[in-house]
Amino acid sequence: MNQKIIGAITTYPGMNQSDWLWQQTPYNFGKWGNIQMLANHPEPDFLLMYQFDFPKQQKERSWLDKFRRQSLQNAENEIFSKLRGVPKERIIYLIREPPLPEVIHITKANYDRAKLYCGCISGPDDFAPQPDYMPAIWYHSNSFRELNEMPAPPKTKSCSWITSGVSRSNNHRHRLNFIKLLQEGEVNFDLYGRNLPTWARNNGFVNNKWHAVAPYYYNLAIENYAENEWYASEKLWDALLAWCLPIYYGGGAADKLLPAGSFLRLPSLDETGVKFIKEVIATPDYWQEARDKIAEARQIILHELNLLNWLSNFVDI
Prior knowledge:
This protein is an alpha/beta fold. The chain has 9 helices and 12 strands. Strand 11, helix 6 (253-257) and strand 12 form a beta-alpha-beta unit.
């Protein structure tokens, strides 16, 4: 098979490795079906711009702006060099961050700029040129074969939550307040994450996410955004791939992408939600009942929702 090479660029820090996404395929060197993922290939057949933020454009108001304009022109030239000669119809722009009110203007500006360079522009929001669900990536270091073939690992603890202390938006702050409610309500869960507030009793940051998810029956998968029908993130995929039953707070996308019964809906981030979590995690019964549905959801994530599968289907069009 003549496989097409997929290159990639992003403005996410620390995501410029040549083997990006290689753990999401059972084949060597990023191969999946009719494609090969080689993020840094100098002459790819297709190019994925993954959550790429374009340089801001400003109107000239003073003589200093001439220098700013030159800086922007340099940035524009740098963008063209990153495209590596790939034609517009083969460049894909995917947004993966949620459309939080605080950043919508940035996302819309990125969509507008992407129209100059990209033939496919998609994101998990209604104002995207092509609204769509985010193809799945996950953050476990396990190989694809291991995830695909493994039975459920031993479950020795009740519930975990991996989150962060980010407080940039109202949604982030609402999530932090829910940590406080859970801990004040003496809910039996283990908290992990970066930069959590000093008042949050937690186990700190883990380098391998598997360690903070796989030993638990349940995982709190709470999205930063739950207000549309498109957005679902790795919070859900990572929990299910570790054979957890997610207690999920998010929008309607999950219901359309995954089988009913493969996750539980957290009704709200308030006292009602606290009561719901307490009831669920008091026993492994909910997990036992959902076990077959979790297995079904894992196969959907690995084979159908997988970003590599999405790219393979795009190349086939």
